[in-house]
Amino acid sequence: MKIKIAIIGMLILFLNISAVKLNSTLIPACVNGKCGYINNKGNWIIEPQFEDADDFYDNDLAAVKINGKYGYIDKNGKIVIEPKFRRAGYFIDNKFAIVVYNDKYGLIDVTGKMIVEPKYDFITFDKHYLYYNITLNRKKGTINSSGEIIEPQFDEIQPFKKNGLAVIKLNGKYGFINEKGEIVIEPQFDYAKGFFDNGLACVAINKKRGLINSKGDIVVEPVFDDINPFAKNGLAVASQNRKEGFIDKSGKFVIEPQFNRATNFSDNGLAAVQVNWKWGFIDKTGKMVIEPQFDIAAQFDDNGLAKVYKNTVGYGFIDATGKYVVEPKYQNATPFDENGISEIQILLPNDTPKKNPEYPFSDKDTIVYEVVELAEDIHPWKTGCVNNKGKIILEPKYDEVLIYRNSKYIKIKLNNKNGLADINGNIVFEPQDNKITVHNNTIFVKENHKWGIVDENGKFTVEPKFDWVISRSFAY
Predict the structure, then answer these.
(1) Is residue 386 in some structural domain?
(2) pLDDT above 90 as % of the chain
(3) Residue 319, domain member (yes or no)
(4) CA angle 436, 439, 445 (to 5 degrees)
(5) What pLDDT score was predicted for residue 350?
(6) pTM across the whole model
(7) How many domains are there within the chain?
(8) What angle do CA 173, 174, 175 make, to 5 degrees?
(9) Three-state SS at 351
(10) Do 175 and 189 touch, CB atoms closer than 8 A?
């Protein structure tokens, strides 16, 4: 069976939906066991009448539960798809949703028509590669870019690449199929990575890796221990005899294997390399432009910063000159988010763990520490936020911070009390006993087991009266 559908832009059912915007005017809420939708002033727009209610996100339909089954309503509260599903995902761009019917997964359009019949054990959608993974009886299939179903028949399947080929695994060997599901390169390899943008794919034969073209011809003999994807400058990390260097598409080492480890080149033309167990950065000629001095180093990100770590001081971020933009004094730091904010952590001095003498094993990268047992109400880690300019947004003094997506707020927690700050670090209100959640920029506070709406002074503008409000602003 081949069914044409458009899949670009859809997401998996129940997936982390970082790219999806919540509807700012319709907020799911419940009272007396029934759910409906309110606005940011707490007024009912769709009266409470459902057993459960999901958000509209950035589209015109929302899943609701009636008599134990899920269907869909529009923004007027009208049922447009009858409730008959055990589970129901959300629509993206008013197109398609994954549903569960009779314990099987299928796909419907906005009219409720079954586009993919519910006969599969599981259907997921990969938001990074924009492809489906369909599972039936432990076999994998997919939906190609033309919307045609490739029925589950493989042990493993990877996303289709630009040349229209995808890696599959069958009977313990890796090969490649086209978008019709036809095997075009027989499963014969011990391992395979999908085709890179330069038209080559990494394959393994007898534990060694080389490169093939789209016809399956070996163009670089399998003599490497591993080969990374090619960067935009045409070079890829390749390892040989426990050393790593950089090759071009002919398999020739442009930068000889001399590093303990190496990362791909970033868009700014620098790559992190490890020499004598210290990390530095080189340019495409192999010249060391930032001397090896770090115990850990990552690639440069879209902000032009690289996360680095020194055992004696901690994590920080440097620019392409090696200058610290964020000083290296943190026990951990997350990648910068869409607002240019990183979550940082410090370890309280009195709770610093010591090296465990019962585990004498240690190498240049690994040291085993003993666990320091603390009272339940003691938090050895303190958390804050810094921006990509190096400015401390929130001092690392909180037990937890929660950076909300689609919102200007950051939730802060201290001593089991909840407070709120904005993304500029201004404290909206200090931590208090009540629970807090945010829907876009509407602030909800729970008091006496009921939820109400407060302003930025912490004053209730809608008195607590809701049993439940959606808490899916999708924080990091």
Answers:
(1) yes
(2) 76
(3) yes
(4) 25
(5) 57
(6) 0.83
(7) 1
(8) 125
(9) helix
(10) yes
Which residues make Cβ contacts (< 8 Å) with residue 370, sequence separation at least 6? 353, 354, 355, 356, 358
Q: Specify if 17 maps to a domain.
A: no
AA letter at 40 = N
Q: 365: domain range?
A: 241-398
Q: What is the pLDDT of residue 91?
A: 82
Backbone angles phi, psi at 154, to 5 degrees: -115, 155
Per the CB < 8 A criterion, the answer to whether 409 and 423 are in contact is yes
Report the pLDDT value the prediction gives residue 57, as an integer from 0 to 100.
76
Neighbours of 206 (CB within 10 A): 7
Buried b (16+ CB within 10 A) or exposed e, 344-362: bbbbeeeeeeeeeeeeeee
**Six token digits for residue 5:** 């559908």
Q: Does residue 39 belong to any structural domain of this protein?
A: no
DSSP states of 48-62 = EEESEE---TTSS-E
Q: Which amino acid is at 411?
A: K
Q: Which residue ranges in the chain fall short of pLDDT 50?
A: 1-19, 351-352, 359-375, 472-476
What local confidence, expressed as pLDDT, does residue 60 receive?
87
* 83, two tokens: 């409730």
| Cα separation, 25 vs 39, whole angstroms | 5
Residue 267: HSE in the Cβ half-sphere, 13 Å Cα cutoff: 5
Q: Are strands 427-432 and 435-439 parallel, antiparallel or unpaired?
A: unpaired
Residue 93 pLDDT: 66
Q: What is the H or E stretch that residue 381 is in?
A: strand 381-387
